[in-house]
């Protein structure tokens, strides 16, 4: 197939000099295997060096290059330009939605990382750690639903309409990580985690819009993880309540005379 | 070219290119001196690993006339993990 020229439409914005964002069109001739990121590189190298975007590994493992292309959050490094053209006939690249733009396609991810830290994403081991390694069964690993393969790219976070409306919401990325820790047989803080996650910014904020599943470049399922956390949080609450009930009835036994 | 003061990735690339040149010089100087083959450092003129002479780290210092090389011994646990040639 002879190379055909393509027009890439890119949202530009430098808050220091521009009143508001605008679009630039760039024409280029892609090869058969040109990715959307390659196209951005071609534009930056050959047409406009001031075009600014984040990228690093260019094989979908660093999570730097999540952007909004034709209305979908994707990793531009793993998306062939031709696929986008075949599907939509046009290419419009915008920064991740709902996040403050630093410049062009670069967004400020501070809130993303702040919410992430709220769920204590690290492992909290039990006091009596085993002498050698922790043993984890294949079933326990399967139950994690590959959640550990999340690359923290922010595609789900910025696709979530609840995030757009409620800045307090912990967000799909952090709740997925919380799910990973709650289900982790090596973690000793599940109960505390579930108590935190059942708060007003936590699992009940999710409106099951499923945008996070749509956006995830690693085919993960944050919505299902959030649903699982909800169920576990309910169970924990029910257990806590019945425990309080039991203690009360022990303290004040009903005396029948 | 990007001349802005905000998130200037063009400037960043220029600075990084200068560093890459510095480190290329260090790598080439160290590799020329290391007359053996070891891992990714493979020489056709010295195809064998030479623990007797080259079981040591190369250190490079920046001078006006290019990198100046010195060496530092490698910590080896001879009891438990004596060095041996890798064969694949």
How would you sum up this structure, described in words?
The complex is a heterodimer of chains A (257) and B (88). Chain A is built from 10 helices and 7 strands. Chain A starts with 5 loop residues before the first strand and ends in a 6-residue tail after the last helix. In chain A, strand 3 and strand 4 form a beta hairpin. Chain A is 38% helix and 12% strand. Chain B is an alpha+beta fold and 88 residues long. Chain B has one domain (9-73). Chain B is 33% helix and 18% strand. Chain B has a two-stranded antiparallel ribbon with strand order 1-2. In chain B, strand 1 and strand 2 (66-73) form a beta hairpin. The radius of gyration of chain B is 19 Å and the shape is elongated. The mean pLDDT of chain B is 94. Classes of the chains: A alpha+beta (257), B alpha+beta (88). The A-B interface holds A 14-17, 44, 49-50, 52-53, 102-103, 106 and B 1-10.
Q: What Rg of chain A do the Cα atoms give?
A: 23 Å
Tally of DSSP helical segments of chain A: 10
Percent of residues in beta strands of chain B: 15-25%
Q: Give the overall silhouette of chain A.
A: elongated
Overall helicity of chain A: 25-40%
- Main beta-sheet strand count, sense and barrel state of chain A: 5 strands, mixed
What is the name of the CATH topology of the largest domain in chain A? Fumarate Reductase Iron-sulfur Protein, Chain B, domain 2
Secondary-structure element string of chain A: EEHEEHEEEHHHHHHHH
Structural class of chain A: alpha+beta
**CATH class division of the largest domain in chain A:** Mainly Alpha
> What portion of residues of chain A belong to β-strands?
5-15%
How many domains of chain B, as an integer?
Answer: 1
**Cα end-to-end separation of chain A:** 95 Å
User: Which stretches of chain B are poorly predicted, pLDDT < 50 over at least 5 residues?
Assistant: none
For the CA atoms, what is the radius of gyration of chain B?
Answer: 19 Å
Order of strands across the main sheet of chain B: 1-2
Determine the CATH superfamily of the largest domain in chain A: Alpha-helical ferredoxin
Terminal-residue CA separation of chain B = 48 Å
Poorly predicted spans of chain A:
none
